[in-house]
Amino acid sequence: MLSYWEKKHFVNYDLIVVGGGIVGLSTSIQFKIKFPESKVLVLERGIFPSGASSRNAGFACFGSLTEILDDLNYMSETEVLQLVEKRYRGLLSIREFFGDERLGYLPTGGLELLTEKEMYALQSLDKINHLLDPIFNEPVFEQVVDITPFGFSNKVQAVIRNKFEGELDSGKFLLSLWEKCQELNIKILTGSKVSKIDVEKKTVFVQNPTEQENIDFYADKIAVCTNAFTNLLLPGLDIQPGRGLVMVTKPILKEIPLSGTFHFDKGYVYFRKVEDRILLGGGRNIDFEGENTLSMEVNPKIKEYLLDILHGIILRDTDIEMDLWWTGIMAFGKNKKPIVEMVGKNVGIAVRLGGMGVAIGWQTAEELVNILSEV
Prior knowledge:
This protein is an alpha/beta fold. The chain is built from 10 helices and 18 strands. It has a domain at 4-54 and 172-238 and 335-373: FAD/NAD(P)-binding domain, CATH 3.50.50.60. Helices cover 30% and strands 27% of the residues. Strands 1, 2, 8, 9, 10, 11, 17 and 18 form an 8-stranded mixed sheet that branches. A hairpin with a 2-residue loop joins strand 14 and strand 15 (277-282). Helix 2 packs parallel to helix 7 (170-183) and helix 2 packs parallel to helix 10 (357-373).
């Protein structure tokens, strides 16, 4: 049972945000900036964000050449252009708000490895550059003339460079969000597992680990930002979880000739140098069904696939050992557009980021704050 003081000060808010990842924290910040006198609470079930916000690879990207070509098989040119623009503008917005230094952002560019099966993409390079011209006003993709300095195996027949992409430190990004929340006096309660949301009564029920009963939180408005886990609270949405594996090697003694963020296999595989290590991740396309899960376990089939790429293509003649590996849970659907909508009076959702939370999380939060402000 709650005390008089707890009921008086701790359970009533103007906005409750469920989910303390990139979108949830961004929503709370932008709402508080728009309504400075409001009381805002963020509820996060984990000690750290439970999905992928602090478990991603830190790629500040918007789509490789083959990924964009693949998207054109399912989307119109207008839709693809809008998707790329949303991602690129999203990256610019967080850089402008927080600053590159606080994000650990480096404008190192993006590169894509092409094997024989992807060489077809070169024929469409000019076409895609022309498609993206309204956003960038200059060519985005260009073929690297000499790829021998990279030291890749001869399976790699070409490399495409994109100077508009970069990399950031995912931990610094999250720290920046936390620090801004603290500055704005936004309350964050971690270890707060939401068991139920009553949309009609605008009540959020949180499991109390020290007692049998739930703690009931009340708000004028509720924002649900739980991405892949949303159907646990609001069933029936077009959301499919997609687990992603990321690994980091032990320090490598010799010089690593890799600068930039690298994409492989239509963007499903990605790697980059992190200090004196290699970060490598992805491979979800090897076992889509197996990775359609909320479990944080490591898929041995995908781990083996990534290690083969590391030893067989990226750093062939180097003795490398893995130091860390972990998984994160992303959210996907029938298309690559996030779901930002109202699900009840004063209750909105911003979910299904399609593995692009770094690029579009801040903008998606802005959209949610705008529609919450209208009601």
